[in-house]
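A brief tutorial aside. Many learners find it easier to grasp structure tokens once they have seen a single protein encoded end to end. The record that follows does exactly this for Acetyl-coenzyme A carboxylase carboxyl transferase subunit beta. Read the sequence first, then the structure, and try to relate runs of similar tokens to stretches of the chain.
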Amino acid sequence: MEGLWSKCDGCGEIVYRPDLEKAWNVCLVCGHHGVLPARRRLELVLDEGSFEEHDVGLAPKDPLQFSDSKKYRDRARQTHKALGERDAFISGVGRIDGKQVSVGTFNFAFMGGSMGSVVGEKVTRVFERAIDLRCPAIVFSSSGGARMQEGIYSLMQMAKTSAAIARFRETAQPYISVMLHPTTGGVAASFAWLGDVIMAEPKALIGFAGPRVIEQTIRQKLPEGFQRSEFLLDHGMIDMIVSRKEMRERLAAVIGLLG
């Protein structure tokens, strides 16, 4: 029976795993949104069979010859072997309710969804394809921020992706940013917060630095729920919180209004 049951991180209840997977990893008892694999997320929101992946061959290099507990190139190679993904972002084109979209999603399982030069390039190409196709752009963000193993090459992606969004604005098509748990660091400080419409999943941690770092820096206790999507909605930082089961329907509605 091993592997058939899963313990919910929200309420602690034991849930039958096949039922949980059918519910897109949303707890059937308390509604807690667990981790959803990146490709499953694309299945959740896109019309069946409509996704066409692009930029498959892009893979990270090691420009700084970086090494911590292991060499960066070895870490990236091992992660690729374990996950079957070359980096922390999947991109391409698809359809939602029959309407074409340029779409990309982070894969947090790949080095914490960190943004290196390849991730920045793939995010940029989401907007460049949307310009060429004159269609909406959608990015699902889930990241620990810039990839330290690439240093300044990683930080440059903040400006690069933001510039791509500025060019995309000229098409008058909407950019919908969906923030997942967690969305932090350089990703939050750049393209994730530049959407025409900003959505978030329930109780997602969203911000630049984490709450523990902030508390240690300012030496003050933070408000309850600080940096969670509900707190940000109350303070006007995001437009809406959308449960996973309603995500496809809500995206279709926004595209129908703005696309």
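Self-check: The radius of gyration is 18 Å. If you spotted this yourself, you are ready for the next section.
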